[in-house]
Amino acid sequence: MAFEDLYREVILRHFKKPQNFGPVSDEEATVEDENPTCGDHFRLRVELQGDRISSIRFDGRGCAISTSSCSMMTERVLGKTPSEARAMISEFLGMVQGTCDPSDESLGDLAVLRSVRDFPVRVKCAGLCWQALSKALDKLSA
Ligand code: ZN
């Protein structure tokens, strides 16, 4: 499959049916974050049990890039320790900002978002939920 087709297929699949997507009330939200440039706005609820992310859910609305990035992120970090999740956050943000090139294996489907690095406005969309996760982990470990 050509990269463009794979990109479109993965993004649209997660956009149409986001994983770990469900209502998060204001009281439940660990963090709320938005990207005013695009209008993306998400609430993220993260729960830790022992040293693992035992539950992660998001709601809100955003463009295809931000929504699919968030959906893939939740799949990826569920069951991970906060430090493993932080490593993924910096790997992913580095990838979309063009400062590092992680292997496709370590990022799975998220690797399709690598091409947003050519579109600065889209970098914010793709990175939004990852920044939010970082804030949520800060909050939970405080
Ligand atoms: Zn967006």
Here the CATH topology equals Sufe protein. Chain: A
Rg over C-alpha atoms, rounded to the nearest angstrom:
14 Å
Q: Given the structure, what is the number of helices?
A: 5
Multimerization state: single chain
Weakly predicted, low-confidence segments:
none
By secondary-structure content and strand pairing, the structural class works out as alpha+beta
Please, what is the average pLDDT? 94
Envelope shape = globular
End-to-end C-alpha gap: 45 Å
CATH class: Alpha Beta
- Give the DSSP E fraction (strand runs of 2 or more residues): 15-25%
Unique ligands:
zinc ion
Tally of DSSP β-strands: 3
Structure description:
With 142 residues, the chain is α+β, with helices and mostly antiparallel strands. It has one domain (3-141): Sufe protein. Chain: A, CATH 3.90.1010.10. It has 5 helices and 3 strands; from the N terminus they run αβββαααα. Strands 1-2-3 form a 3-stranded antiparallel sheet, covered by helices on one side. Helix 2 (64-77) runs parallel beside helix 5 (120-141) and helix 3 runs antiparallel to helix 5. The model has no long low-confidence stretch (mean pLDDT 94).
